[in-house]
Amino acid sequence: MSLIEWKEEFSVGVESVDTEHREMIALINELDGAMRHDADCATVIRTLGEIYARISAHFALEEKIMRDTAYAGFAAHKADHERLLDHLLDTIDGVEEAGRYDREALSALLDRWFSDHFRTHDAELHRRIG
Q: Which of 21, 37, 58, 10 is nearest to 107 (CA)?
């Protein structure tokens, strides 16, 4: 069973963005699966770093689309991107410093962050530019 299942409500109607959403969900599900099989901290930290790198690039793509379309919700959407990235860095640092992780808490956090962002900010973007 996957942590996050693709839902049409995650779609913004821009193929490149939706593809990246699917890829991000797959990477989060991969991390959740690895943690279910007792992945070591180095693997978790490395995968969180990969998620961070990919989501940073993804957010840059979304922000370009928002600028190009003069999207009125740009400031709030970008602020949520920055909040998510900061929180993800704090999470990586926390796992690294503790030398351990709580699979249930970490998986729930990733699910909540990205599912909530897709359902709110990205859904609004879709309604405005779709």
A: 37
Q: Give the tens place of pLDDT for each residue, 18-73.
A: 898 899 999 999 999 999 999 999 999 999 999 999 999 989 988 999 999 999 99
Q: Find out whether 41 and 95 touch, Cβ atoms under 8 Å.
A: yes
Question: 3-state SS string over 92-115?
Answer: HHHHHHHCCCCHHHHHHHHHHHHH
Is 103's pLDDT higher than 70? yes
Q: CA-CA distances (angstroms) from residue 45 to 28, 92, 96, 120, 126?
A: 12, 6, 7, 27, 32
6 domain-assigned: no
Q: Please state the pTM of the whole predicted model.
A: 0.89
Altogether, the residues listed in the chain come to a count of: 130
* CATH classification of the domain holding 74: 1.20.120.50
- Does residue 130 register a pLDDT over 70? no
Label residue 32 exposed, middle or buried (CB < 10 Å: 0-12, 13-18, 19+).
buried
The total number of structural domains in the chain stands at 1
